[in-house]
């Protein structure tokens, strides 16, 4: 029954009250009892007062219908900042159990080798770098040696890593800067490292965190992708992502957090087809279902030690559960150790 109908009853006034009282009111909706009660009050009051009070019951069915809307049809409640932080920290704890052996996947014996290897790792795999650097460091073991090298010879040694001319310029430039400005030693300060040719914040934090024990967040392509996939950030700017993630986790966790996230991105949470059905943090992932959810099919997508294959390092840490990676094609096994 409409609001207009209620108003008509009220506007009839006192002369027809007796007839209105005798006529039974048919229940046409669940709100009919209240409607008839309102109508009776409206009849008794008459005039404008009756019309005003009669309009309200007409809106009641719509309001109640809105309240009865099933929860499943309502938009999902946005995750609060506090809930996101708690979920992010729980993911970190879970990853710490999954990858207790997480580590930098570049072979190095000192800060200089790690610095050079990290610069060479741009636009290529750590495995390719690890297969390339043994010969490079055998010939140029110090910054002084590399700074005095013949560029064409360096280019030939690092050719497999790609962009070898630009990378030769960078590593020879940083070697010269280390020789001339830092006494042949890699500095342990961010401000000094980022001044070296080819060294940005990502490379600097890799060196600081793994060669000097200074906490830092390494925002590489894997870290950036997973941080966005897990809704830790919406930014695609590495510097902004670094700042936002630093605000979520304690400083002491930054370096290992970076290793764990990168490990997970390489082994399970792939860019094109994540192995969702084999992911140990699936219940915490807002992007679950973007990849393969069937457990058996997902297992086939696992890489490195999770899939039973060699890792990226030729000389992995003692606690690494996987097999060492093979040397470069044409290099006899053990040649890298002999070069040391």
Brief characterization of the structure:
Helices cover 53% and strands 0% of the residues.
Give the biggest sheet: none
Oligomer: single chain
* Overall morphology: globular
Percent in helix:
40-55%
Q: What integer value in Å does the Rg equal? A: 35 Å
Uncertain residue ranges:
1-72, 333-340
Estimate the mean pLDDT confidence.
83
Distance between the termini: 92 Å
Class from helix and strand fractions: mainly alpha
Description:
The chain is mainly α and 340 residues long. It is built from 17 helices and no strands. α1 (3-11) runs parallel beside α3, α1 (3-11) packs antiparallel against α4 and α3 (32-45) packs antiparallel against α4.
Key terms:
17 helices; mainly alpha; single chain; disordered C terminus; globular; 340 residues
Topology:
Blueprint: H1 3-11, H2 17-22, H3 32-45, H4 47-67, H5 81-98, H6 111-120, H7 126-139, H8 143-147, H9 151-158, H10 164-181, H11 190-193, H12 201-211, H13 221-229, H14 238-246, H15 254-267, H16 295-299, H17 335-339
Helix pairs in contact: 1-3, 1-4, 3-4, 6-12, 9-10, 13-15
């Amino acid at each position: 029954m409409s609001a207009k109908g209620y108003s008509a009853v009220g506007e009839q006034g006192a002369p027809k009250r007796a007839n209105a009282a005798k006529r039974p009111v048919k229940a046409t909706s669940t709100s009919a009892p209240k409607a008839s009660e309102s109508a009776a009050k409206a009849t008794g009051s008459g005039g404008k007062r009756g019309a005003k009070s009669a309009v309200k019951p007409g809106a009641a069915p719509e309001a109640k219908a809105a309240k009865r809307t099933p929860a499943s049809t309502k938009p999902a409640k946005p995750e609060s900042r506090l809930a996101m932080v708690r979920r992010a920290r729980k993911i970190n704890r879970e990853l710490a159990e999954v990858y207790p052996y997480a580590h930098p996947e570049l072979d190095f014996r000192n800060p200089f080798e790690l610095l050079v290897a990290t610069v060479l790792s741009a636009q290529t795999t750590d495995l390719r770098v690890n297969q390339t650097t043994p010969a490079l460091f055998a010939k140029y073991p110090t910054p002084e040696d590399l700074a005095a090298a013949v560029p064409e010879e360096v280019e030939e040694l690092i050719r497999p890593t790609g962009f070898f001319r630009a990378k030769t310029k960078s590593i020879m430039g940083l070697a010269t800067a280390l020789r001339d400005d830092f006494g042949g030693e890699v500095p342990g300060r961010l401000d000094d490292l980022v001044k070296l040719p080819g060294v940005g914040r990502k490379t600097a934090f890799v060196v600081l965190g793994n060669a000097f024990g200074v906490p830092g967040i390494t925002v590489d392509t894997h870290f950036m992708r997973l941080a966005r996939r897990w809704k830790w950030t919406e930014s695609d700017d590495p510097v902004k992502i670094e700042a936002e993630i630093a605000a979520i986790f304690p400083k002491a966790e930054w370096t290992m957090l970076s290793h764990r996230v990168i490990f997970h991105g390489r082994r399970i949470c792939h860019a094109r087809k994540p192995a969702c059905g084999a992911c140990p943090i699936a219940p915490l992932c807002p992007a679950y279902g973007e990849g393969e959810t069937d457990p058996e099919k997902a297992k086939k997508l696992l890489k490195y030690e999770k899939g039973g294959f060699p890792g990226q390092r030729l000389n992995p840490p003692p606690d690494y559960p996987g097999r060492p990676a093979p040397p470069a094609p044409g290099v006899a096994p053990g040649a890298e150790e002999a070069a040391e």
